[in-house]
Amino acid sequence: MNLSPLKQYGIVTTNYWAFTLTDGAMRMLVLFHFHALGYTTLEIAFLFLFYEFFGVLTNLYGGLIGARYGLRLTLWVGTCLQILALLMLIPVSSSWPKVLSVVYVMMAQAISGIAKDLNKMSAKSAIKTVISETPENLQVGEKRLFKWVAILTGSKNALKGVGFFLGGLLLMSMGFNSAMGWMAAGLAMALIPTLVLPGQMGKMKVKPALSSILSKSQGINVLSLARFFLFGARDVWFVVALPVFLEEALGWNFSEIGGFLGLWVVGYGIVQASAPALRRLWGQSQSPGASALQFWNALLTAVPALLAVALWREVDVSIAITAGLTLFGVVFAMNSSIHSYMVLAYTDSESVSLNVGFYYMANAAGRLIGTLLSGAIFLLGGMQACLWTSCLLVGLAWLTSRRLPPTLRSSALLPIS
């Protein structure tokens, strides 16, 4: 079947959306299930350790695999591995010894981490292969790239938020084990349309060497380091600490916490998808560059600090968390949307999967550190300590972003041929 690049992108994106629903729901199911069994925040963080660690390795080598064998293969493997991870979690029982449960779930999460980053790398790399086909000129091409990246990233996060809510709802309505089985069946259905994708999608004409997995671009390297700090700053208080804090401080049940966090992620995704339109409202008609990223990083630095001060001053917890999360979500969404655009602006369509893989390797490493710190710091110092750590990490992201060079074609005057 001869599919246009746009249809290819549509199939990849639909699969990515289905995958994202199961990924968000699985995270909430695992977190709430084991917290209900009496696991500490640090022990819960260890359940996600392999998920993030293997995401680092997957992004490092997944880009090379995609460049050598095409994005269709990485998409298939990622989806199948997620189905396997869901099936593995069906027999998990509260009667299992704690050590066995932790090790077994860590193995399933490792498979899910590999799956998630293969799937994400495939979807985000596919954008570049589409946009590079039909740009009328530099400005039109770059604006279109920013718009499509924002839509994909925003819709993904909105659906992940729905997944958070779905996870809490499924846990209360049908239980941990049955929920995993139903999600595996649904994702298997989403795999079927991808069977018609062409094998050449995203494949480089010359197979890259193993050494090419490490980026040689200053822009990619600096942006990747900034991404590491940025996502560590989010996850250090959002992943483990916040859900447990909401239960302990406010007495919310699993469905309420899942719904609240899901609503936040949906709103966060909407802001991401709307980033190009928001910039136009503020008079920013050009595609964003390093200065835009530096501005939003600097603004984000203040948000966790203000929230930490509010908790210290014993402001009403529900008001402080709601207002703080809302502000953090808006500013973080703008940061993330510009980040996701710039990694593609720094690369070319020939080596896109290599550079995107390297970049999201740094993203996964930041999430890994953030997840571990989230469990450990909350256990030692509570939510305020997590927020101050977040402030420090955002500050490091801002300092790193000050070294960003111009994008590949930012100074070009001729239309893209």
Give a structural overview:
This protein has about 425 residues and is mostly helical. About 80% of the residues lie in helices and about 0% in strands.
Terminal CA distance reads 28 Å
Q: Which class best fits the helix and strand makeup?
A: mainly alpha
What is the percent of helical residues? over 70%
Element-level helix/strand string: HHHHHHHHHHHHHH
- Helices, by number, come to 14
In angstroms, what is the radius of gyration? 21 Å
Shape annotation: globular
**Strand count:** 0
Instruction: List segments where confidence is low: pLDDT < 50 over at least 5 consecutive residues.
Output: 410-417
Main beta-sheet strand count, sense and barrel state = none
Q: Average the pLDDT over all residues and give the rounded result.
A: 83
The fraction of residues in strands falls at: under 5%
In short:
The chain is mainly α.
Q: What are the SSEs and their pairings?
A:
Blueprint (H helix, E strand, L loop, with lengths): L4 H32 L4 H7 L1 H21 L1 H18 L9 H34 L6 H36 L2 H16 L26 H21 L2 H10 L3 H20 L1 H7 L8 H23 L4 H29 L6 H50 L16
Helix pairs in contact: 1-4, 1-5, 1-6, 1-7, 2-14, 3-4, 3-5, 3-14, 4-5, 4-7, 5-6, 5-14, 6-10, 6-13, 8-13, 8-14, 10-13, 12-13, 12-14
